Structure formats: C-alpha cells, structure tokens
Amino acid sequence: MSDFDFLRLAVDIGREAGDMLLAKRPARPEVVETKSSGTDVVTALDRASEELIRQRIKAARPSDAILGEEEGETGGAETGEGRVRWIVDPIDGTVNFLYGLPDWSVSIAVEVDGEVVAGVVNVPPRGELYAAAKGGGAELLREGVPGERLRCNAGVPLARALIATGFGYLPERRAVQAQVLTHVLPVVRDIRRGGSCAVDLCSVAAGRVDGYYERGPQYWDYAAGGLIAAEAGARVGGLNGRPYNPGLTLCAAPGLFEELHDLLAPLNPERDA
Description:
The chain starts with a helix and ends in a 9-residue tail after the last helix. By secondary structure, the protein is α+β, with helices and mostly antiparallel strands. The chain has helices spanning about 5-25, 45-60, 95-100, 170-185, 195-205, 220-230, 255-265; strands spanning about 30-35, 40-45, 65-70, 70-75, 85-90, 105-110, 115-125, 130-135, 140, 145-150, 160-165, 190, 210-215, 235, 250. A hairpin with a 2-residue loop joins β9 (about 140) and β10 (about 145-150). It folds into 2 domains: about 5-150, Fructose-1,6-Bisphosphatase, Chain A, domain 1, CATH 3.30.540.10; about 160-265, D-Maltodextrin-Binding Protein, domain 2. It contains 7 helices and 15 strands. α1 packs antiparallel against α2 and α5 (about 195-205) packs parallel to α6 (about 220-230). About 45% of the residues are buried. An 8-stranded mixed sheet has the order 4-3-5-6-7-8-9-10, with helices on both faces. Catalyzes the dephosphorylation of histidinol-phosphate to histidinol, the direct precursor of histidine. One of its GO terms (biological process) is signal transduction. It holds the Pfam family Inositol_P. It is an enzyme of class 3 (hydrolase).
C-alpha cells in the first residue's frame, strides 16, 4: 500500500469510530477506571472505540502491529512493505468527552519501519477531520465541503503568539507546569488550554493557534497530529534538538518554534516537583 492508501483506510476507520462515539455517548459517560491518578479517567467507550478500530485494522491488514492507549501493542510481522504499525488513541481528550466539551478526538497514525507516513485526527463534535500523508501536505475535511489545505501561521513573533498548552494528571507535574506557565504567559499574546494534544497540534496546523507546548503527552497522543502539523509547515520537536517526546513536545512555525524553545529551555520544563 502507498502512504495515501494507508491514509484513506485510516480516514475511513477514524470516521467510523467517531460516528460510533457520537451515537453512543450518554449524557454523562461512566468512568470505569483511572490510570496515573484519580483524574486520569477511562470510559467504557474508550475501550469500545479502540476495539472497533482494532477490528477494522485487523480485517484489512491482519499482519500489522497495533499500539493502542488502552490495550498496548499487539501483533506485527515484517512484510514486503516493511514493518507496519498503527498508533491509536481511541479518545484523546477523555475528560472533555466525559463532560460534553467538544475538543476530543479519535487519533490514528500509521508507521512504516518506525516513520509515521499517515495521520488522521477526527474531531466528531466539530464535524472536522484532519488528515495528512507524508510529503503530501495536510487537509481539513468536512462533510459536503471540499478539503481545505492547511498552513500554519508564519512570521508571528513570540509577543503576538497565541500558545496552546496542556497539563498533566499528577499533582507534582501540575505544580511545575504552573511555574513554567507564569514565565510564559507574560511574554505571549495569550494561552489556550483545550484538553486534547491531538486537537492542539491540528489547531497549529490550521492556524487557530500559533504554537503549542506540553510535557507529558504519549506517542498515541501526538503521532498523527504531529505529522499533520509538520505537513502544514510547522516544526515539531523536543528540547535541544531532540525529537518530540513525552518529556516535552513543541510545535510552531520555524522562527516562533525557536523563540518558544529558548523561552522554555532554561525553565527545565521536563521535570516534576
């Protein structure tokens, strides 16, 4: 399969999972489990979404590996295409989903030999699906409307930048993130906290915010959104030349990326209290 074939399959699966979640979401979804803390929740529909996605991938691509937030990594075999792995977050922004806020998403990325080649972030409450194939640019897709080519905002200085961020679930992490924020907020236009890493990265791609940084997101949170942002012209990375990672993920157009990096680096934002 080509990268665009992978993308088409990911789009179809992401749409189906999003439609299922919209149709089955009760007035207040039940929390069935917590993970890293009492505020890090899992709902029954997180699990149902991941199971649906896994079933559809296995039906189409039985030899591929799947890494999902809820069930971990399964399967995978070397094929003539290389090792293919799907990176799945069945609901990114589960607390938003729980409370009926619109910024939650289904995130699906496809790796070939360790490189992300296709990514889909479906935001069902907004009727928006973001998609990118490596080297093919990024698009925003809405039903009944031609795809919109995405470009991040360029030439925005730090002082006029609208910056998205997020906060972890552990109190000791939040304490440091609050300290870092007190240094960032006075020198930027403003801060936005949406509650979904994948949606925040797509917001950079769409020019709805100028940049994003956060400590703590996992690979399934940023794999698809990171490709979408990069294909829209943003730079995505970590501190001091490292790739983006759970320690810190940074995203902005070149120029602003460096300004934001140089503001954050001396603050040691990868630590916990």
